[in-house]
Design goal:
The protein is α/β, with parallel strands linked by helices. Helices cover about 45% and strands about 20% of the residues. Helix 8 (about 175-190) crosses helix 9 (about 200-215).
């Protein structure tokens, strides 16, 4: 069956997208349509802070894009040499917190040792940080996107854990999103399942998906990568058939495969 994944593809250098691979093992053909576009900002400021690890008690990453911004700061050879010779080890002497395996893998590529890859959400990660850190530490440094949720900063602040944030990328709707969705529905028809990967994806895609699906909408099994996305879908009146147990390709593919084995309910979405 056809599955539409509303997410950004992995970098070519990272190999085949694991969501496409894992859905294929269940006998389903998945297509990616990128939902978001990203513009990196404040990279000079980010670079300055990255090379002053003694001012911070650790790092926090909740998205692959934030790690990508760090990687961009290390493109100059002399910066990369300084990072590898001394700076990364100074960061590793503190705690590097991440949400999810994808972000953890990118952090590992920078030579940093990640904590929290199994947390899955910012809410769970914030609890891990609060358990591990004292209120008298130097601030944790949190490079983030322009539309980050406030769950983690609010939780840390209310528990007295200092945090310094810096917006390093801005998020907007992908300029070709509606065109790509129209082309997909024209060529493939309505998919058996549609998976959302972020509240932003719900915000930018749902109206178009509803319009293009027409009377087939109630037959589509809608899936969510995690509870935050599921709640955003439900808030828009969408019936969510399944949510990945953990935000990984393996768990989402298993959830979608199981949902597609169930007969359509015919309930309104």
């Amino acid at each position: 069956m056809h599955v539409l994944l509303l997410k950004e593809p992995r970098d070519v250098e990272s190999g085949p997208d694991p969501y496409i691979k894992d859905l294929a093992t269940h006998g389903h053909k998945a297509t990616l349509i990128p939902v978001l576009s990203f513009k990196f900002v404040s990279l000079n400021t980010l670079s300055d802070k990255l090379f002053q690890p003694e001012k911070y008690g650790g790092l926090v990453f909740t998205s692959p894009r934030a790690v990508e911004a760090v990687k961009m700061c290390l493109e100059a050879e002399e910066r990369r040499e300084e990072w590898n010779s001394s700076i990364k080890e100074k960061w590793n002497s503190s705690s590097i917190y991440v949400v999810g395996k994808a972000t953890a893998a990118l952090v590992g590529n920078l030579g940093l040792k990640a904590l929290g890859e199994d947390t899955g959400t910012a809410d769970v990660l914030s609890r891990l940080i609060i358990e591990r850190e004292d209120t008298n530490i130097l601030p944790l440094f949190f490079p983030c996107g322009s539309i980050k949720r406030e769950v983690l900063p609010t939780a840390l602040k209310s528990n007295g854990v200092p945090l310094e944030t810096l917006t390093v990328y801005q998020t907007a709707e992908h300029p070709d999103l509606e065109k790509n969705l129209k082309n997909y529905f024209t060529e493939q028809g309505a998919p058996a399942s549609v998976a959302f990967f972020s509240p932003s994806g719900v915000k930018f895609c749902l109206e178009v998906v509803r319009r293009l699906s027409g009377d087939r909408l109630t037959q589509i099994k809608f899936a969510a990568i995690g509870p935050t996305t599921r709640d955003a879908m439900a808030a828009e009146g969408l019936r969510v058939c399944c949510t990945a147990e953990k935000p990984t390709a393996e768990h989402l593919a298993a959830a979608i495969a199981k949902a597609l084995q169930q007969p359509p309910t015919g309930r309104s979405a």
